[in-house]
Amino acid sequence: MARTNFQYEKRQRELEKKRKAEEKARRKQDAKREAVEGAPAATAAGEDEADTQEEPAPQDAA
Fold first, then answer.
1. Cα atoms in the 13 Å half-sphere on the side-chain side of 19
2. Distances (CA, A) of 26 to 6, 14, 20, 58
3. Residue in 19, 21, 1, 3 with CA at minimum distance from that of residue 11
């Protein structure tokens, strides 16, 4: 009877986890880079919008 090679399976799982972690880190880095690059334009537009938007009045909790 053939036996399962658990070391091979474990190594494959570890490689998959490592690949996913690298992909996630790359996506986070891209998002951070886009936020930094878009920050000056977003703040200028955000200030105009902030003046027109008001926070809703808090409800009395009694």
1. 6
2. 30, 18, 10, 40
3. 19
**What pTM, to 2 d.p., does this model score?**
0.50
- Sequence-ordered list of residues with C-beta below 8 angstroms from that of 33, at least 6 positions apart, any chain: none
Answer yes or no: is 17 within a domain: yes
Q: How many domains are there within the chain?
A: 1
Q: 28 lies in a domain? A: yes
Per-residue pLDDT tens listing for the chain (62 residues) = 788 889 999 999 999 999 999 999 999 999 999 988 886 654 555 555 555 566 666 677 65
